[in-house]
Amino acid sequence: MNRIYMDNAATTAISAEALNAMLPCFGQVFGNASSIHSTGRDARKKLEEARRTVAGLLGAKPNEIYFTSGGTESDNWAIKGAAFANRHKGNHIITSQIEHHAVLHTCQWLEKQGFEVTCLPVDEYGLVNPEDVEKAITDKTILISIMAANNEIGTVEPIAEIGKIAKEHKVLFHCDAVQAVGAIHVNVNDWNVDMLSLSAHKFHGPKGVGALYIRTGCKVEQFMHGGAQERGRRATTENLPGIVGLAAAMEKAVNGMEENAVRTMYLRDKLIDGLLKTIPHTRLNGHPMKRLPGNVNISVRFIEGEALLLRLDLAGIAGSSGSACTSGSLDPSHVLLAIGLPHEIAHGSLRLSLSDNNTEEEVDEVLKVLPEIVTSLRNMSPLYEQFLQEEK
Amino acid sequence: MYSEKVMDHFSNPRNVGEIENADGVGLVGNAKCGDIMKMYLKVEDGVIVDVKFKTFGCGAAIATSSMATEMVKGKTLKEALQLTNKAVAEALDGLPPVKMHCSLLAEEAIHAAVEDYMKNHPEAVI
Ligand SMILES: Cc1ncc(COP(=O)(O)O)c(C=O)c1O
Ligand code: FES
């Protein structure tokens, strides 16, 4: 069976470019970038080349790029680091209800350390209102952290507007751009961000490597104490294969973005329109327009997401869901609740996330298979039975 | 994460559907994740001669409903009341710990259907 992978918001397949760039680092270029000898210098050369590439693609300077172990570390470092380094100025942090747990749980931990956190609500599409951000700023506010694009519902936030507000009020602004890099235009100056998180495995790079952009002059505590790597701000011998893979993947993703986005958006819209048309009692979650090119998120009423995912998997299709039954914590996704979905509708949520690897044939196959699976699950749903009786 | 037996009962659930004019119906909800299960019984001489279910829930919930119906079919009401979620889970070669509560739903649905039968048939003795 040909497998159809539509879970690219969770992770992506590594690109040939990234893999080929990495391979020498598992062989000849094995050195420690901090070593004086030529083996070390070869590694250093690759490391700094990667840093220049990443910086160039973000509109940043190379010495503003710090490599990390992924999006989670970048978020943790940015938020905790900025909070503690600026504590003398205040203890108030502003974020939103739909952030990734890497941001939300970090903020919740900071609350226990005496910081105050305002978690802004979003509208029905998942949009943060920049006016709400401005209104929430007090003389104690030291940090704003808002994501560029949401990983579940794909909503793209008004980051440039929020960045402008943060700058006017002289408050540090961190942006989790993990889902945005390679998918939409990202530029640290256009957005006025002071810190920005990204993660390689979301744009066809390797897992376990990411980067944090820290604007020159932005005060952030050191996250890992130890050696003098990353200009003394993040100790540990650099993960050279990962970093080189990140840079190669990012170069390909960002340079090919516009072309890919057109194609991916066409597939996305075909999938959304097809599903909403062929499956009654379905709704689109997230913004119809301000949306990541590859994100499809629908709620199918009267059925539960995990059962839907398992049935799709049996048909060779990989997706994901924000259903309570898939969450481990048995609560539906905080993002779906934040956009106002009642529990039972959050229950039947399905996310299909596309990348440039997906084809129109795959979309057609999903449009053929999914309605049949929904019908079969609805036929065994007591909620559907009840709904049909009430309709009569 | 699921055993082969769970996947079998999930992908080919036994006894899905409704029984018209059922002798006992049990409808229970899962407080934990908000899922719902409905059981229908047909009873003759204290024996469950037919049972059907409908479930709004995860893979484990569907598989445990299916297994539970198989386990009580042809059994007496008394035997059905002794059905435990543990037994259902064991019959499925186990469930992941986070999914044990789903099997509770199956046990409760069967018990609720039997109790409903008893209410409709006060003369019946088990
Ligand atoms: C928006 C967002 N932030 C952070 C992360 C965490 O990234 P990583 O898996 O690299 O730690 C993810 C990935 O799941 C994400 O989608
Ligand atoms: S029914 Fe919700 S987790 Fe099983």
Essential attributes:
heterodimer; A: 392 residues; alpha/beta; seven-stranded mixed sheet; 12 strands; 13% strand; globular; B: 126 residues; alpha+beta; three-stranded antiparallel sheet; 5 helices; binds pyridoxal-5'-phosphate; binds FE2/S2 (inorganic) cluster
Topology diagram in text:
The complex is a heterodimer of chains A (392) and B (126).
Chain A: E1 4-5, H1 16-22, H2 38-58, E2 65-68, H3 71-85, E3 92-96, H4 101-112, E4 116-120, H5 130-136, E5 141-145, H6 159-168, E6 172-176, E7 195-199, E8 210-214, H7 229-232, H8 240-255, H9 257-278, E9 282-284, E10 295-300, H10 305-314, E11 317-318, H11 334-338, H12 343-347, E12 349-353, H13 360-379, H14 382-391
Parallel strand pairs in A: 1-11, 3-4, 3-5, 5-6, 6-7
Antiparallel strand pairs in A: 2-8, 7-8, 9-10, 10-12
Helix pairs in contact in A: 1-8, 2-8, 3-4, 9-13, 10-13
Chain B: H1 4-11, E1 24-29, E2 36-44, E3 47-56, H2 59-72, H3 77-81, H4 85-91, H5 100-120
Antiparallel strand pairs in B: 1-2, 2-3
The complex binds pyridoxal-5'-phosphate and FE2/S2 (inorganic) cluster.
Short synopsis of the structure:
Chain A is of the alpha/beta class and 392 residues long.
